[in-house]
Amino acid sequence: MTSRAANVKNSRMNFKFQNESPQDYKGTKPIREASSILEVLSLMIVHICKKVLFYDTNLKIAIYLGALFLLSLVADVLTFPKTYFSRTDNVFNQYFVKIGWFWTLFLTVPYVLLTSFTTCCGKRRLIFTAHLSRLAIATFCWYAWTTIFNVIETKYGRCNARSFDTKSACLKNGHFWNGFDISGHCFILIYSSLVMIEEAKAINGWEKIKDNIRDENYTRSLNDKSISVNPLKNISTEELNILKESYEIVTPYVRALLICIAILQLLWDVMLVSTILYYHIMIEKFISGVIAILTWFVTYRVWYTIPNVLPNLPGQGIFKYNNGKPVALTPNRKKNNSTNGKHFMGMPINTKQDTMEAPTEEVR
Fold first, then answer.
1. What are the pLDDT digits (tens) for 147-179?
2. Helix (H) or strand (E) run with residue 93 in it
3. 174-209 burial by CB neighbour count: b if 16+ within 10 A, else e?
4. Which of 78, 250, 251, 267 could tie 114 with a disulfide, CB 3.0–4.6 Å?
């Protein structure tokens, strides 16, 4: 009898939640929403684009310099077969490379504007001074260097017909201007690629912002004063509301722009190979490539990394989200099991079944 009574008691304890009132579970921690098929597909494409864009930058630069030197030397000695890309009137050269900086800004300006508006919680002054100013500086560098290249070729060149002293008159009369023509195409293709790669880094850790918003809303709803490492803990309620609203609105556009940036960057690499094989001599291409890399290095790897000096690096706002480290709600707490260990492309993914079966967590 005693054993049977104990079993009945244990059975009742195991199913105690069935007899408890709903009020006991008002403070349960929210879990990640179910991911739609469209979102999973977009995350898949974004993941591939990130692999393309964030290939080891140092190795990419080494490849650029190696190609500019070695492949250009081969191109100076050998004549490669003519292709569509060897024609100056090919569509990619006419409508993309010749106005290459326009296309770079066409994609990076809205991308930087949307990402910085979110991470700066709508603070317009910070958006312009800390983020959009990087593109203004890059535009100045592009204009200054291409102008210098043109001045060098015009001032220190000469026409093959001695009767013409200016480049415009020489070319207008069907002659050839012999000058040191530092490749503006190589410069803009390499510099644009490096700028787009750096600016695109704002996407790193972007998906975690949604989890941080959810956890911070939960913590504030409980008026929890315990220690938290959530990066949103120090922003105001108004800033948190702006962040939540803007994140939901801009995220699809940010992903779409990232995909376009990755495609354009691949096109720039293809056109760089075309330029190396068919245009200019080695020294003209190599010098322009070195100048492009040095300009990128001085700005993004030196200037923008100096603390308390504007502009900031991409992704830096009024909270930190892209340091690549997982964020927990409280210290020494085990990893949240709300995703049941399911991940896709490094991000936790919930299905509707997971959401229905996820265990509730009682507030103590």
1. 999 999 888 888 877 777 777 788 877 778 888
2. none
3. ebebebebbbbbbbbbbbbbbbbbbbbbbbbbbbbb
4. 250
Cα separation, 299 vs 134, whole angstroms: 9
3-state secondary structure 137-187: HHHHHHHHHHHHHHHHHHHCCEECCCCCCCHHHHHHCCCCEECCCCCHHHH
Phi, psi of 119 (to 5 degrees): -75, -20
Residues whose CB is less than 8 angstroms from the CB of residue 121 and which lie 6 or more positions away in sequence, other chains included = 235, 239, 240, 242, 243, 246, 317, 318
Cβ-proximal residues to 70 (8 Å cutoff; 6+ apart), any chain: none
SS3 246: helix
Q: How far, in whole angstroms, is CA 11 from its chain's centroid?
A: 55
Closest CA to 121 of 282, 269, 205, 236: 236
* HEC profile of 260-300: HHHHHHHHHHHHHHHHHHHCCCHHHHHHHHHHHHHHHHHHH
- State how far the alpha carbon of 122 is from the alpha carbons of 115, 127, 304, in Å: 10, 8, 21
Distance between CA atoms of 79 and 86, rounded to whole angstroms?
11
Active site residues: 185, 280
CB atoms within 10 A of CB 72: 24
DSSP E strands, the chain: 158-159, 177-178, 343-344, 347-348
- Per-residue pLDDT band for 27 (boundaries 50, 70, 90) equals low
pLDDT digits (tens, 9 = 90+) for 49-100: 999 999 899 999 999 999 999 999 999 898 888 888 888 889 999 999 999 9
Phi–psi pair at 81, nearest 5 degrees: -60, 140
CB 350 within 8 A of CB 32: yes
Check if the beta carbon of residue 32 is closer than 8 Å to that of residue 211. Answer: yes
CA atoms within 13 A on the CB side of 185: 25
- Name residue 190's beta-bridge partners: none
Instruction: Determine contact, residues 284/180, Cβ cutoff 8 Å.
Output: yes
CB atoms under 10 Å from CB of 45, counted, come to: 14
